[in-house]
Amino acid sequence: MNEEISEITQLLSALAGGQADARDRLYTLLYPELKRLARSHLAGHAPMTLEPAALIHEVWLKSAGREGALHRGQFFAHASKVMRSVIVDHVRERYADKRGGGLNVTLSTTAMDQLAPPDVLKLDEVLQTLERADGRAHQVVQMRFFGGLELEEIAEVLEVSVPTVKRDWRKARAFLFDALQT
């Protein structure tokens, strides 16, 4: 696995450096993890017409070769953000189609079981508020909750210590819990 992570990092760097031939190999290596991530994002939603493959393709179009994604953790943090954005846009579109017809889409994860299942649009609004209030805590939520990254990986991406990530994660969870209860 570490060998694969190293190869992913090398391929991301090569692609960001303009080596287009790294794109196909990178896609092959990333696809299983992107599929797991897409399924995770879609899990717990009310019947959704959006498929994991659609999320993966959207991420690939918006992420591969983007500057700044020089290693696996950064790529998956960005991929998770893109997936959440696509899901929110999809829900907004469906909600508009139903003209407020009471569409209730939920999101669940073992990391935040204590929360009542939030509405995707409400969650997006709360996450935007968190981003304005504490950008790093927001990044931790993106990478941990949506990206499935471990605390150590997040610390590496953010270039902070693991205890700092733990504090940000606790702070962000408390913020989300309070905001989603109202």
Automatic annotation (TrEMBL):
On whether DNA-binding is a keyword of this UniProt record, the answer is no
The record's section on PANTHER family has: RNA POLYMERASE ECF-TYPE SIGMA FACTO, SIMILAR TO RNA POLYMERASE SIGMA-E FACTOR
Q: Which family does it belong to?
A: Belongs to the sigma-70 factor family. ECF subfamily.
Any single Pfam family the record assigns to this protein: Sigma70_ECF
Q: RNA polymerase sigma-70 ECF-like HTH domain: which residues?
A: 6-181
Q: Which domain of life is it from?
A: Bacteria
Q: Kindly indicate whether the keyword Ligase belongs to this entry.
A: no
Q: Which organism is it from?
A: Pelomonas parva
Q: What is this protein called?
A: ECF-type sigma factor
